[in-house]
Amino acid sequence: MGVCDGRVVIVTGAGRGIGRAHALAFAAEGAKVVVNDIGVSLAGEGGEATPAEEVVAEIRANGGEAVVDGNDVADFSTAGALVKTAIDTFGGLDVVVNNAGIVRDRMFVSTSEEEWDAVIRVHLRGHYAVANNACAYWRAQSKEGKTVDARIINTSSGAGLQGSVGQSAYSAAKAGIAALTLVQAAELGRYGITSNAIAPSARTRMTEEVFADMMAKPESGFDAMAAENISPLVVWLGSAESKDVTGRVFELEGGKISVADGWRKGPEVDKGDRWAPDEVGAAVHDLIAKGTPPQKVYGT
User: Is 112 noted as a catalytic residue in this protein?
Assistant: First the structure.
């Protein structure tokens, strides 16, 4: 018996890397998996079904159930078709794992409008489009009096939580995903839907060159940067056991699991009247001195 026996799961960007690891891990725990991937390059160019087909073939060879889906997650209508694939193929949908993404790394002043839009489209709009279509299905079920026990699992990043030099578009998208997760959790609980996010650190096409030393595979022992290390928590979050956990962002690396503390209200001063501009500086410096220093931006 697996922790996700019989549950129907969509994993986007599941042809390679962390998404592939998620798909295989869900299948190993009894889930029926829709393996979504359009097979594009790291920059979002080209497209082929082969990576997703290979994942599905591996799942089936191990006795599991899976189907390939090649829909564009960032197009609202085709994201709806992705959700329909799950429902038509397996009779329902229980879990959406938003994982698909691309990178166009540039310093902020060198980032073109096209590069900015491409990254925001796949990451942030892609998370919106798939989840929104899934939620329409789940809400309709709830309104019909059916029991809904659904999960949204989003993919943020340390870059989104702390910023990353050379990744302004990616960082902005991932920060938006973390905030989106909080809003989804607050709004969707009434329908039986939870929403959580992960900020993973692992060896993928996005990281193996940029952080080559950190991501290098060890000659022996535990491979802390293997993509497969990220999936156990994701699978558990997709299970019925996690129904009381929502609105959380988990940072994951190797065998480490931590819950991000997020933005919190810090030190405060109240004058009780309108401030004069020449009064503000001293007050701000005093507040900063009392507060907790922010974590460093990656790359600084």
Answer: no
